[in-house]
């Protein structure tokens, strides 16, 4: 009697843990559903102010805005800016980070200005560059690129610090050319760390995209969200906010998959379940 | 190792004379300084070469900086930015450490929250600003909430990582003392996680400045972000850059203070170089 009473809860607890371990998405999805359900219920009962829409309304709005074609041009415009800035900034950061990591002398010279300019919030440079180029797309892309440069630069550089001496000696011993050593030893060895930097930069590029579109009222998804708030178009506002978040998430997942392919066989740092 | 110990002023004693090596600037530092000087020189050259007021030279920027300080503008706006930002950072610290420790000590909390945090981390929380404005009105509170929201992520992430990395025997020892849970959390888990918490704070501090500046640039009439927009609108490039320099200095000082705090608080991890 007591034995069964004692084992039954233990069994059920273990089976719960089994489910949570084998299907790690179950618990977080349940949390999201509970929160969304409570939100929906509160909205249904009229407890929320009119500017907080219900989850089902937001999803419906996104679908209808996609169908009638208001969302596509905004998303594409913003995405083009963010990705262009990200590509330029991270490419420069990657190459420069590897070069400065390989050559201590060159590294120290570049590190000085980089370390000095690192604490500047790069958004603050937006109006400064806008004084010269105006509040247009070039300025936005430059500022996004500037912000994306630093994480990739720093991580690529620290990636080169961890290169195993043996590989470098092996390369030298084989009289491989400088370029060949760089390509086949330095780049792959620094890649896992650099990808951590790339992921940080990608997230940053979307923050900067939104910031540069909102400051000085530009065009694109960010400014559409802000204008929607001013005009009281809460449907467009919420749809935009959710879409921006979704884009950030999808872009990060894509980069993760690409990164995992590029660094096959190497443990990817910053790996989270 | 022995020579290094002799050079160390703490080991050699406070009355020893400095060695020749310690008096000469390190080659590394001087090369870094060369880089900075070259960058400034290039800027100066650019501003003198471009015969317009768009790129102010260093003297103009410095003059503007002094003027901003004398007129009290810098103190007024800077104080507000820093005050609001630090409140947001403090909220992020308290919430982040609590959530991070809960995730690090309880598997169920970890299972529930970690995927959600990983999924929302790359989404720009800044986009929620218009919603916060609707909920809290313009002014300080939506900014503080946004700072807290953006800064809480790195703090949770680092606290969690630190709490998970506590040596097993330390946890077992603390359990062995049969101390109550609260005592164990405060006396063992929290101090053992402290280095990671401070690392998270170091990542969060620049984010705080970014969020403050962005939100102050949008429909605000106070703060350093506003000062930049104001200088731009009245076409004073030197004014824009003088505030940027203040922001850089602020970011640098906060970071150094956190490093100093790390050295003070985490006295048992001496070999950490930052």
Per the CATH scheme, the topology name of the largest domain in chain B is MetI-like fold
Number of domains of chain B: 2
Question: Which architecture of the largest domain in chain B would the CATH scheme give at its second level?
Answer: Orthogonal Bundle
The DSSP helix count of chain B reads: 13
Keywords:
heterodimer, A: mainly alpha, 11 helices, flat, disordered C terminus, B: 274 residues, mainly alpha, MetI-like fold, 2 domains, globular
In short:
The complex is a heterodimer of chains A (273) and B (274). With 273 residues, chain A is mainly α.
Description of the molecule:
The complex is a heterodimer of chains A (273) and B (274). Chain A has 273 residues and is an all-alpha fold. Chain A folds into two domains: 2-48, no CATH class; 60-262, Orthogonal Bundle (MetI-like fold). Chain A contains eleven helices and no strands. Chain A is flat, with a radius of gyration of 24 Å. Chain B has two domains: 20-51; 60-265, MetI-like (MetI-like fold). Helix content of chain B is 78%, strand content 0%. Chain B contains 13 helices and no strands. The two termini of chain B are 20 Å apart. Classes of the chains: A mainly alpha (273), B mainly alpha (274). The interface between A and B is large, with 64 and 59 residues.
